[in-house]
Each structure stands twice: as structure tokens, then as C-alpha cells.
Amino acid sequence: MKNVLIVDDERSFLSSVSEGLSAYAAEFNTLTAENGKKAIEILNSTQVDLVVTDLKMPEMDGFELLAYMSRQFPDIPVIVMTAYGTPEIKERVQSMRVSQYLEKPLDFKELVDKIFLELAASSEGYIRGITLPTFLQLVEMERKTCTLKITSKGRIGYLYFNEGQLIGAETETDKGEKAAYEIVCWEDAEIEIESICRRKHRNISTTLGHIIMEGFRLKDEKERAVEKENIIEVGIEETGEVDGEEEIILETLEKEEKMNTLKDILNEFTKLQSVTAVCLVGRDGFLLDSIARTGIDTEMVGAIASSGFGAAESMGRQLGKGELTMSMLEFENGPVMFSPVGENAFLVIVAEKDANLGMIRLKLKKHSHELAAVAAI
Amino acid sequence: MTEGKILDIAHISFLDMIKVMITLSGAPSAKGTLIRNAIKTAEKIPKVNYNSFDDYLTAIENATNPIAMIEGKSSHQGDFVFGLKACPFGPSIKNYTEVFGKLPEGFADFTVEFNKPSPVTDQYRVGEGAGVSPFCAVHQPMRSAFADKITIDGKKIKIYQLGCKSGAGKKGFAEKWISETGVSKDVVDRVLDDHMCCYYLKIVD
Question: N or C terminus: fewer CB in 10 A for chain B?
Fold first, then answer.
């Protein structure tokens, strides 16, 4: 039997949720904790399969609990309950790569749906623990003041937040934005949180969102450069040529690299929860490449999307709205998003209704230049 | 009493429909729709094999060759270069311009779009300068797609569009396909002096 741990400081909320979830006692047990400290006691004594936690709690808050889980229980999926407050915060929350969010006050049916979804996902072997970028965005959103010690693969870094603003960063070798770009991309990060900001002066002047986006872009760039060097070395070794053939090898490799890059980028989208198809389509509606779940006719998606996209562009021009930057159609079973990539193509993303639209937008921004370059060849 | 002018409404509607497509969803999308439609039409025809190139030519002469059935009889100019005397859309254009004076607006932009390099025009070896009107976006890919259904002595054939001439006499040349086939541009130019359309047939070994 699976165990679901609900963490919230409101006793009445805990008891009403507990009571409601007892209807699913045949599917999972419901455990409750009034704060992070009690939650940790339960985590250390019982096999927990899912944690649903509030962020603001006495004794030990949700952040400390999440930080602890990042070190001790990184594979346990987490659902964060938070009050959005404003549409801006809601959008920001939806752009994060956390398993699930629930808006307070809770919609009980939604809670049950998400619990079942997460339990099913974890049964299928998906690791759904909280990621470092998500954690950082939660810190920003909740305007928390803290110092984070991040440990990953033997490296240590510090991030300093003052009322939710990232004001400083440092690693053993770098300081400021350079350090922050690196830290935010660290994998398997273990987080320690201290509720004071141990830095007085800023050495970061940009936003956390930009740091995360730029950090991942730089990381991708670095990885691809290393990969390319390795391929070239192997290619030259295999042919034994260094002069005349070198150019041809490079040319072929570059073309292959571009196509591989395209697949990699498309894969980035399909890795997102609820994205069922991603198609790079020429402006004429012919498919350049795609990744889709079986049963989706991507050729047809491309053809139809071309008309829709073209129509949206025409409307924008007729109304004097300038060039189209993004278009989204919302259907009963989820959205379809279109985004131009350069002059020759556009990207179509088909998703299910619980898709994280903010994350899709983030990926679109991140990869639009690369996609445009590939579409132009 | 005269009967006056009787229009072919299909011609008029088709030309205006192209304009509507361009206005509503842009020239690139309209280009894709027309090409896709041409390819779909080709899917409907059965495969056919000719025992020899001569048999292929005879079938054109008899108008039993699928390509001849859509565009009329082309003539072999030697070295697998063909010339087509009349544009299959000639009657539509004539019909339309007789009534409205000129072709619908937006056709020039569409033609520029069709001539731009793209995966689909590469696949069917069309455009690249050989388009002189939106009708080329229907005619040229349709011919190439029909050719995909034809074999000569069991071997596949490929059509390369080398050039085309507008009703006003302006010639368009597909430098890319001229270069790839090795046909001299002078030859294409000469063929276009007496024909509206010039293409090359390659038998694939």
C-alpha cells in the first residue's frame, strides 16, 4: 500500500483532507504532519511515496522540508500547495519544473486527481523529486530571505536571497553571475537552507529567471562544443587525414550535428509532462521533423497548422499588430501552441490539458535561435 | 442576338480561391496547400510501366500516358529534354483575364514564394526560378508526383523542371535543376522559345 504524506500547519485542513482521502483508503494511506519537522520524522520512519506540502509553516517550513528531501529523499515526488495571489505569481508557478502545484484554497477533486497522477508516474519509474531551479523559483515567489548551500558531485556553491531576490552567488572558483549560471544547472543537487541572508552586497544584477535560462543555455553550448571536439578527433583518427579531408569531415559532422541538435531540441519538449507532440513545420506546412506519441498524424498536424498559423499572422498584420510571436489554441483536451522559428518555419506543440505552459514557453525562448538555424538549412 | 460570353465558373473560382488562400493564410501556406493537393491527386492514379522509352513517348502521343493526361502532349526535344506547347492553365488564365482584365492581386508574391528553396520543392525538383505563376505550383509538382507512379523497363523516373514561360513571354529558369541535370541553359532557352514549359526526364538506374 502506498503512503501519501500531507504537510500543513492548519489542523482543521489536515483533518478535513484526511477525512476526504479516507474514501481512497483502498488505494493509499494518508499520513499527516503539522510542520516540516514532523514530516521528516515520518519520512525517516515510514516508506512515503508522495509528499503534499504547504510552504509557510511554523517550526520547520516547506522550504526546509524540500531542502531536506533534496538530500535525503530526492526521488520522492512532491506536490506543493501555495496561494497564487496574483496572475503573475500563478504564471510563474506554472512555469516551474515541479511535479505538481495546487492552488489554495484547495479543490479537493483536483488534489485527488494529482495524487493519483503522481503515484502512477512514480510507479512507472519517473523520478519526480523537486529540482533545484524549481526550488529557487519557489524561494523567489515566496519572497524568502535565506542562504542556500548547494552541493553536487563534490562541488559546493552558495546562493544568497534577500526577500526573494537572488543577490549573490559563489563557488570555489567564481563569484556573482558566473557562479550562479553554473550552480543553477547542477544535477542531483543537495540543498541546505539557512533562514538568513549571509551576504550584504549584491554581486548579481539580473533576475533569477534570466540566470536559469542563460545558465542552461551556456551549459548546452558547452556540452555541444565538447561533443563536437570529440567527434572531430574520432573522425580524423579514423580517416588518418588532417588536411584535405578535414574540411569534408567537419562539414559532414556539422550537418549531422545540426540534425542531431534538432532531435535533441524536440526531445527537450517531449520530456515535459503532458507534451504529446512537437513538430517543426516549414511555412508551407510540410514537416521538417517531429516527435510524437503514436496515433498522431504529424504530417496532417503540419498541414493544418500551416493554415492556422498563416491565418493568425494575416490577422495580426490586418490589425496592425506586427509579427506573430506566439499563438495558442485551447481545446477541451489541452492546448496547441504555435511559435515562429526564424523566417522559414514554426514549431507546433501539442499538449494535454494539465501541461505546464510556462515551461513550454521557457523552452521555446531558449531554443528558438537554434531551431531557426536548423530550419534554414 | 448573340449568346454573349459564357464563363467557366470553375476557372474563375479556382483563380479567386488562390487569392483568398494567399490573403487568409499567407503565400507560404497557400503554396503548401496547392502542392499538397497536387501530390494527393497523383496518389489517386495507378502505377504504370512502359517497356521502353519509346513506348513511353508513344503513350504521350496517344495521350494515354498519365502525364499527358494532365498537361497535354509534350514533345521530346532530344537527350530527355521535353517541351510543352501550351500551359494547361492557359484556358483558365484566358477566361479570367478576358472578364477581369488581369489576374488577381498577390499572384506575384506567391510566385516568388514558390521559387524559394524548400524541402518539398527539392523533393519534387520544381520551382527554384522555374515558377512564373501560381499555377506552376500546381502543375510542376503534380507532374513530378505523377512521374513517381511511372516506371520505364521497371526503372523509376524523375522529372526535373528546367524552365517555364509566362503568358507575357517572360522566361523563368531553374538554375539549380539545370546544373544538376547537366542540360545547357541555352538548350532550355531555345526550347522555351517555342514552348511554355521545359523539363528533363531522368531514368534512375
Answer: N
Per the domain annotation, does B41 fall within a domain? yes
- pLDDT score at A97: 43
Closest CB from A282, A288, A307 relative to B25:
A307
Q: Which residues in chain B touch residue A310, judged by CB atoms under 8 angstroms apart?
A: 24-26, 28-30
Residue B26 lies in a domain: yes
- List CB contacts (< 8 A) between A285 and chain B: 28-29, 32-33, 36
pLDDT of residue A248: 53
- The overall average pLDDT reported for chain A is 82
pLDDT of residue B73: 94
- Contacts with A303 from chain B: Cβ below 8 Å: 32-33, 36
Residue range of the domain that includes B72? 9-203
Is A303 close to B120, i.e. CB distance below 8 A?
A: no
Query: Is residue B116 within 8 Å of B127, Cβ to Cβ?
Result: yes
Strand B48-50 relative to strand B150-152, pairing: parallel
Sorted by where each starts, the structural domains of chain A and their CATH numbers stand as 2-130 (3.40.50.2300), 143-240 (no CATH), 253-375 (3.30.450.30)
**Angstrom distance (rounded) from CA A269 to CA A275:** 7
Do B29 and A286 count as a contact with CB atoms less than 8 A apart?
Answer: no
> Of B26, B36, B119, which has the smallest distance from its Cβ to A310's Cβ?
B26
Encode pLDDT of A214-232 as tens digits: 888 788 777 777 766 665 6
- Tell whether B2 is covered by a domain: no
B29 contacts A309? CB cut-off 8 A: yes
0.85 surpassed by complex ipTM: no
- What is d(CA B85, CA B82) in angstroms, rounded to the nearest whole number? 10
Domain count of the fold of chain B: 1
Judged by CB atoms closer than 8 Å, whether chains meet at A284 and B26 is answered as no
Query: Concatenated DSSP letters for A52-101?
Result: EEES--SSS-HHHHHHHHHHH-TTS-EEEEE---SHHHHHHHHTS-SSEE
